Amino acid sequence: MVAVPSQAVRSCLTESKKYIGDVPVVLAAKGIETGSLMTMDEVVHDVLGAAWENRTLAMSGPSFAKEIIQGMPTAVVMACKDEALATRIADILFSDTFRAYTSTDIVGVEVGGALKNVMAIAAGGVIGMGWGHNVRASLVTRGLSEITRIAVAKGANPLTLSGLAGVGDLMLTCTGGLSRNRAVGQALGEGKTLEQAQESIKQVAEGVITAKSAYLLIEKLGVDCPIIETVYRVLYEGVPIDKAVQGLVERPTGQELQYD
């Protein structure tokens, strides 16, 4: 099981490659690698070889580590191209408090797990600005639409994003009090600098790095994702958060669901 920060997955696997036998790799890391713009399963294949395409699993869903450790009931999805392997690993991990469903759509699960962190920064931003529940709910919903468009552009099933790796993880990360990414966004909304916001949580907020990778990815794929673009501009171009969010509100409307 690989549960390190996303940008450390490649180096971790490279250093431990000679010790890894022909065994499944379960990814708890969520993100998009800077530079290559690969999802974590693609990094595994790149480092360990094509043989791991059918024995790499992505585990994702609404699952704060602290609550799992405390024995609170948690449900996740285990995605692998080999459905039988996903079922076997899910059965191994099953307990009275941990439930794993299965999927063969590893692309959708990986994209959902990575990009919800970027949306959580945006959601935290409007909380910090003191805007109400309406705008937060709208932002999260439109964020799900952007995540789905990216996933579909990479070959995923859009229905995957209506499950635990999509709606489930997004809801938790955008609203939960333990969310590091939401906390960073809230601090930015309250007027803190990015440096001050990161210092205040004293942990890794994957969404900060993923925002840049996601922005480069949507440019590469040619997918319109205004929320991701806005978060990127706030974090990396110094655009004031109030001005950036107001720009989102003032965008022309269009068809709600459009994934082609």
UniProtKB/TrEMBL annotation:
One of its GO terms (molecular function) is NAD binding. Pfam families: NAD_Gly3P_dh_C (PF07479), NAD_Gly3P_dh_N (PF01210). The keyword NAD applies. GO terms for biological process: carbohydrate metabolic process; glycerol-3-phosphate catabolic process. Residues 2-85 form the Glycerol-3-phosphate dehydrogenase NAD-dependent N-terminal domain. Keywords: NAD, Oxidoreductase. Residues 105-246 form the Glycerol-3-phosphate dehydrogenase NAD-dependent C-terminal domain. Gene3D superfamilies: N-(1-d-carboxylethyl)-l-norvaline Dehydrogenase, domain 2, NAD(P)-binding Rossmann-like Domain. Belongs to the NAD-dependent glycerol-3-phosphate dehydrogenase family. HAMAP family: NAD_Glyc3P_dehydrog. This is Glycerol 3 phosphate dehydrogenase NAD P. It comes from uncultured organism MedDCM-OCT-S11-C346. The lineage of its organism: unclassified sequences, environmental samples.
